[in-house]
Specification:
The chain is built from 16 helices and 15 strands. It is of the alpha/beta class. The chain is globular, with a radius of gyration of 22 Å.
């Protein structure tokens, strides 16, 4: 990497520039395995930092509350058209600031405060914004949670149906933040029809896999699709809501003026770039490589005696239960971080430990696949994780330092896309 890749920032604010540079070095030198992180292309980065930042554009294309929107309207329409084409949906809204307000907008569109919402429980792998108590979605609405089976780690669809028929929710969410298996959208759709609920597929984690044909699409089944744009889709930190045309007005009104003011135009532009990239044959190859790497890594971890929730993965994500290793997830995650392997500690289903000090870690393959690592490298990655967890249990900092040197050597051979260098 160059010594000073941001000359204007370095001149104006050297203290902040040094922090940015330090983060770029960290991302370049470490093995990033947080399942919700990735590397964006240089084009996405450039779009995120354009003069579009200077424009306020409250409203929607052709219906703004400010003048001078000739170019902004074209940018937003381009992003919308690309989203519709890529995912095959009738309607798309690219204005949500992130996944959490996007999901809150769904609640505002289809439920009243106090209404029941059914979603996967957070400790079972669901998301905070699917009605969990500490979220606004669980404070303003009545959240009911479903889980996974103890014996398989898979969603119990019979339980989902029983809860739906008993509770009669206005909204049913499928998808989550730690779901390593293929989501049966058709089964959820049947339950939603039977119970009279709106089905929302939260595909934030798997949007890129769906776009690349590496995971089934919810489009034939879900009324609404919610997604972030910065995980497997390799876009900026933003979000989209997609739906059938019959729900377009309700969703658009919920986003603006329901929750948000003017959209972040520079982010909209970067989303448009990412969607353009995701429509390419190269991205399709990438999406399938992400899954191949995750499955190969899961096999390697199983061979080393690790316990994986549901016994493996169908997508980009692996949830590891370290109970049998007698190393808490947080201890393991912090040790792996010192070893140059960035993961996050995570609760596992029926976890006896507290959420901030859970039994598991969550890992994923999107970012390492973006750097060009293939299935032939997954044995080495599994070995580093194995050695790192063992070192965490014994307090062997020398072993962690040795792993970090090995990781840095491999990372140097696989430059991070998008970063200055």
């Amino acid at each position: 990497m160059t010594d000073r890749p941001h000359p204007a920032l370095s001149a104006a604010d050297p203290e902040l520039a040094e922090l940015v540079f330090a983060e770029e070095r960290l991302q370049a030198e470490t093995l990033r395995m947080i399942a919700s992180e990735n590397y964006v292309s240089r084009a996405v980065l450039e779009a995120s930092g354009t003069a579009l930042q200077n424009k306020y554009s409250e409203g929607y294309a052709g219906r703004r509350y400010y003048e001078g929107q000739q170019n902004i309207d074209r940018v937003e329409r381009l992003a919308v058209a690309r989203a519709k084409d890529l995912f095959g949906v009738e309607h798309a809204n690219v204005q949500p600031y992130s996944g959490s307000p996007a999901n809150l907008a769904v609640h505002l569109a289809f439920a009243e405060p106090g209404d029941t919402v059914l979603g996967m429980s957070l400790p079972m792998g669901g998301h905070l914004t699917h009605g969990w108590g500490v979220s606004a979605t669980g404070t303003w609405f009545r959240g009911v949670g479903y889980g996974v089976r103890r014996d398989t780690g898979l969603v119990d669809l019979d339980e989902v149906r029983e809860l739906a028929l008993k509770e009669r929710p206005k909204i049913i969410f499928c998808g989550g933040t730690a779901v390593p298996r293929t989501i049966d959208f058709a089964a959820y759709a049947e339950i939603a029809r039977e119970s009279g609920a709106v089905l929302v597929a939260d595909i934030a984690h798997i949007a890129g896999l769906i776009a690349g044909g590496a995971h089934p699409s919810p489009v034939p089944y879900a009324d609404v699709i919610s997604t972030t744009t910065h995980k497997t889709l390799r876009g900026p930190r933003g979000a989209m809501l997609m739906s059938r045309e019959e729900h377009a007005r309700a969703l658009d009104r919920a986003v603006f003026p329901g929750l948000q003011g003017g959209p972040h135009n520079q982010t909209t532009a970067a989303i448009a770039v990412a969607l353009h990239e995701a429509a390419s044959p190269a991205f399709r190859e990438y999406a399938h490589a992400v899954v191949a790497n995750a499955r190969a890594l899961a096999d390697e971890l199983l061979a080393r005696g690790f316990d994986l929730v549901s016994g493996g993965t169908d997508n980009h994500l692996i949830l590891m239960d370290l109970t049998s290793r007698k190393v808490p997830g947080k201890v393991a995650a912090k040790a792996l971080d010192r070893a140059g392997i960035v993961v996050n500690h995570n609760a596992v289903p029926y976890d006896p430990r507290k959420p901030f000090d859970p039994s598991g870690i969550r890992i994923g393959t999107p970012a390492l696949t973006s750097r060009g690592l293939g299935t032939d490298r997954m044995s080495a990655v599994a070995d580093w994780i194995d050695r790192g967890v063992r070192a965490a249990g014994s307090g062997d900092e020398d072993a962690l330092a040795a792993i970090r040197r090995e990781v840095a050597e491999l990372m140097a051979a696989h430059p991070a896309p998008g970063l200055p260098g």
